[in-house]
Amino acid sequence: MSVKLGIAPIAWSNDDMPELGGNTTLEQCLSEASQAGFIGVESGGKFPKTSEELIPKLKKFNLNLCSGWYGANLRKNTVDDEKKSIQQQLKLFKDCEAPCIVFAEVFGSIQGDPNRKLSTRPKMDLEESKNYYKKISEMGKYLQDQGMPLAYHHHMGTVIENQNDTERLIENTHDSVKLTLDTGHMLFAQGNSEKILKDYSERIIHIHCKDIRKNVLENSLKHDLSFRSAFLEGAFTVPGDGCIDYLPLFNILKATEYSGWLVVEAEQDPEKANPFEYAKKGYKYLTENLNKSKIKIFKN
Fold first, then answer.
1. What is the pTM for the complete model shown?
2. Residue 18 to residue 241: CA distance in whole angstroms
3. Residue 177 domain boundaries
4. Residue 114 sits in a domain of what CATH number?
């Protein structure tokens, strides 16, 4: 088994807050991601929307497209509506041979609202949950048939946020609904990534390696900050710069023979946290601990 190391462009420029890294070019992001050692990058708002434009840019910097975010509105849309909405991104990802789509439900999400406390995030009652699980199962089957697996992303401020939400989603959906485990979001929601890895290893096909600054997390929870306020305060950082010990997680990955992507992702203000320096720090920490776990790292 071997894993591949990728990074998300959110450290360079933030799609939810375009003023963060607004002047940073896509070329700078791709160049620095490659220089830091990564062989893959997730998509972002500054990325071309067609493979004819994107593939040459990725090749220039010897990078692969290792997935990317898709914000779904399945709670209000029909499955057919969502299938239509995803077509452009689906074609792009298939053309670029991405491993999966990072799929999250954003209808009613408060993640981008600076005035909404995290405690006011949306929730589904039993009846809506049952209907939603049917819809997401249908989307999972559809994307599986398209050769582009749905890797569901639990996310702060959304209806699938914490460990219980995530477990119920997995236990009540078709096997085609896979999971993106985000270590930072799971800890923020007071969940246990090690347990998720052990219990649902067959469903986890993508991992976001996001670390947490413990003091900022504790303050965010104590004062019930908005998600935006929490990350602007510096809640998230790269592996090796926060409180998460990744070695036990990697030991589980070794035992379960995980062979997907590990993607460094940490939304920070690039004026406060230089993206290139933090990318190098995250890469160094991951490689050192993967070596300790005797997990091989795939190289281009």
1. 0.97
2. 25
3. 2-297
4. 3.20.20.150
